[in-house]
Amino acid sequence: MTDLQRVTPLPAASGPAGRTLRILIVEDSEEDAWTYQHLLRRAAVQVQCEVVVTGAAAVEALRCELPDCVLLDFNLPDMTGLEVLAEARPACAVVMLTGVGDEQIAVQAMNAGAQDYVVKSSLSAPGLLRDLERAVEKYRLQRELTVSRERMQAALGSVDDGLLSLDRDLNLLYLNPAARCLLQLPDAPHADLGAQTPWMFSGAFLDVMRAALHGGERRSTELRAPQGPWLDVRLYPGPGGLTVTLRDVTQRRQEEERLRLLESVAVNAREAVVISEAEPVTGEGPRVVYVNEAFTRMTGYAPEDIIGRTPRILQGPASDRAVLDRIRANLLSWTPVDEIIQNYSKDGTPIWVHLSIVPVPDARGWFTHWVSVQRDVTEDVQRERRDRTRRELLEMAAAGRPVEDLLDGLCRLIRLDLGNLIVTAWLRDGHLLTLRASVNSDVDAIRSSEQQGIAQVDLRSDEGVSATVIRTRQPVIVDDIRSGHVTLHRGAREALLASGLHAMWTLPVLSSRADEPPLGVFTVFSHEPRMPAPPELAALQDLTGLASLLIERALAQTRMQRLAMYDSLTGLPNRALYLEYLTQALNRSGHTGERLAVGLLDLNRFKVINDTLGHSAGDELLAQVAQRLRSSFRPSDVIARMGGDEFTLILPFSSEKGVFRSGIEQLLNTCFQTPFQVKEQELFVTASLGVAFAPEHGTDAETLLSAADLAMYRAKRTGGGVAEFDPAAAALQPGRVSLETDLYHALERNELELHYQPLFRAGTRELLGAEALCRWRHPRLGMIPPAEFIPLAENSGLILPIGAWVLNEACRQLAQWHVQHPQLQVGVNLSPRQFWNPHLVQSVREALERHALPGSCVVLEITESVLMNVPDAEVTLRRLRDLGVRLSLDDFGTGYSSLSYLNRFPLTALKIDRSFLNGVTGDLSGTPEKVIQAVMLLAHALDLQVTTEGIETSEQAAFIEEVGGDILQGYLLGRPVPAEQFWLPD
Predict the structure, then answer these.
(1) Among 196, 827, 851, 929, which is most buried by a count of CB atoms within 10 Å?
(2) 545-578 burial, b if ≥16 CB within 10 A, otherwise e?
(3) Closest CA to 868 of 839, 909, 829, 901
């Protein structure tokens, strides 16, 4: 007989249900197996049997297909029936076959998972079938019970709350995993729960459990396990005992405690606390639900005044709109707010507040409220504003701003200390004391003072308060101008009283020279009759002392500027004043439509006269020429001396151009027709006059002067007289004049372009950016070297528009590079001539804003001549640094290289000139190497970054890196190329 014997069932009568019973018979005796099949066929049911003779075959068969029941012999050739059960774990009914007296085996089989057993010697057909069917039904019921129990345990085990079942003696019947965790029990707790958790079965909680059992009513309480969580306990009595639920409420209790602490903090906090609803953020805004006492003290609003209303009632006319917009944007995005803003108290007093607002979420994470902490920083803001105003005043004085600007700033500074009082500044000029500035003067008495004739005091005849202060040099404090013993300037009392002003405090601004009268006075007005408080008087005296220094400096600068605006030899306006007049005339002509001509006049053969008769004769001749020009031309014409023998003219006219030119030629002939008497000699002198017209030949001063200069050269070549600027003819002129004319048109014809030489970080050779270098591609002459056209642009004044174009174009290109490489920087060279332009800082700011660039990515390179020759260079450089741009001293070491420049001016870097690299071999003992190393040490000690240009060999690059250089530039690493050829990293 084989290990696996399959028997095909014979047809049998169907049972009542017509169901086929599938039986797996595991029996090594062929005779016994046949007997079992025979008995089952006699039982009058449809049976399908499969016979296997070994335990291994039974295990394999049960893994392939499950029968309804297994009839399993205990003794098998390879293993016992118990071992088959242990290995196969059949998911079906099992009936064990045993012999007489094998009851112990039967018990073991039942414990191992069998549903029943039969004794081989007592088998009968109906009995065997009944035993098998009963085993199948028993297995089904056990399975269903097991599934039901598993589902119940899974359901109870999945809930977060703990669940206990106790009998009436409080013995443990059941607990779920959550309860075991909350009660900190072992994995297999025993029924005597009191031994494991004695804290539950003593004291008040034991009484609660007994009361629930005795009264049959639900109970609830809170309980805390030793060193464990706080538990919310609910007890449900039933016939069999108690069902107890446990919930961890530790976080809730902590939250409640935290809220109690927060409420205590909010109530007793020194800062104002406001709690409002989360929405609506737009429209009228969220409603206030709570304010603390500090809020009431700070704003004057009691809780009943503001609860239910929006916090926006604190805003007022001076609340910064930009700050309010930022706050609203943060609220809309549910992000914290940290701002300083000006609010208003209930009585209208402005308050500066540091505002901190955070959203507060509920347990679900949904924001329900805003909590705002407000701190009064009015004193801090006022102190900062006073300090800032003082700094601004000192900077204004250093920059040579007009005295009116300084007086206005001083009035604003005084008002910061005196609040809403009206502050006025009066300046003395000879015997007249004139109102020159006022702050917070929105009253008719001050606004109309000039129209009423009381804004000026004649110190020779006036006996009023201001005149008294000037004469006595002492303050005069009037607590009430209605007092009869007080003498005021004519008409002042009536005007002041009509505007509700009563107190008047006047302090002198003393001169540093004891023999001179005061420079002026400050007068403060109050709506209330009162004396100044000691702090107010001290602040006024302190600020009038500062005013003395600033006003004296400003007046001295004004006198110096007045002297500097006129030529000392001829008495004519000099170049600076002429340019100011020309700018004003161009602005005026743009509005009125008045025609304007700009003339440049040069004396013919003046050098011969100067060399033959001497410089004193030349000076005398120039003075006489100036006098004749003044007397020959109209009073409305402006005559100025540019320098040497050059004179400039501003000639407004309304006639036809041809008529105007004829008139100018006649005036010129008349002026130079009569000989000049110089050192008892008669000198016949002629002149050449070049004329340019606005707006045909230009709309700005430099352009028109350049055109007039070209026209003057043309007049000289034709023998003198008058010549009009002709762009077409000028383009054909050879030499300097022709090139200058072409340069004049280079910008408008797009002939200029920028090339970029890369800059690399020393050591890593990482690309840092580029230096922008201007190139001129002439349509006829090809590429013109910068050394040829840059000096030409400097001398002609064209460097200003060219410099502005270079800066804007470099920023435009850098903005394109920043899309992929935001770390790059660009260096731009500034000409010394550009520093004479008062709009330099504004043009840099506009270039940065136009291309949305941070100032830190632009490096402005300047030469030592700027620091040496431009008087206001330091002020301009500091204003540029305020924009964030970096400043590099170019060609360091080629000039004086004064260390005071590095210490005084706000430089961030310096560039070692290429000439220092000549002879560098890398030998640290060599003279060039020692010089470079010393410069590196000096620059780094001053926190300056060092760029080395002109690197052409690998030895030079290695040496610079060895001695600590920061940035490398030179042909070794990259030549200047157009932007489209510039290498950018991937």
Answers:
(1) 827
(2) ebbbebbbbbbebeeeeeeebbbeebebbbbebb
(3) 901
229-239: b or e for each residue (b if 16 or more CB lie within 10 Å)? bbbbbebebee
Q: Where are the alpha helices (DSSP H) in 455-533?
A: 465-472, 492-498
CA atoms within 13 A on the CB side of 28: 12
Rounded CA separation 598/586 (Å): 10
What stretches of 416-470 adopt beta strand conformation (E)? 422-429, 432-439, 456-458
Query: What ranges make up the beta strands (E) of 213-366?
Result: 219-224, 230-238, 241-248, 272-277, 288-291, 337-344, 350-361
Q: How many of the other CB atoms lie within 10 Å of CB of 382? A: 14
**CA gap 825, 785 in Å, rounded:** 25
Residue 732 has pLDDT above 60, yes or no: no
Quick check: bond before 695 cis, omega within 30? yes
pLDDT of 443 reads 45
On whether the CB atoms of residues 647 and 640 are closer than 8 A, the answer is yes
Tell me, letter by letter, the H, E, C secondary structure of 61-100: HHHHCCCCEEEEECECCCCEHHHHHHHHCCCCEEEEEECC
Chain centre distance of CA 405: 32
pTM (predicted TM-score) = 0.36
Query: What's residue 154's pLDDT?
Result: 63
Q: Which two structure tokens, joined as six digits, stand for 940?
A: 């780094």
Residue ranges of domains in the chain, CATH in brackets: 4-154 (3.40.50.2300), 159-248 (3.30.450.20), 253-376 (3.30.450.20), 401-563 (3.30.450.40), 566-733 (3.30.70.270), 752-981 (3.20.20.450)
In angstroms, rounded to a whole number, what is the distance separating the alpha carbons of residues 986 and 754?
A: 23
Quick check: 918 and 955 in contact, CB under 8 A? Answer: no
- Which residues 6+ apart lie within 8 Å of 432 measured at CB? 456, 457, 458, 459
Q: Which tokens sit at 956?
A: 């030079």
CB 474 within 8 A of CB 451: no
What is the residue type of 821?
A: H
The predicted structure's pLDDT at residue 222: 83
- Cα 160 to Cα 177: distance, rounded to the nearest angstrom: 9
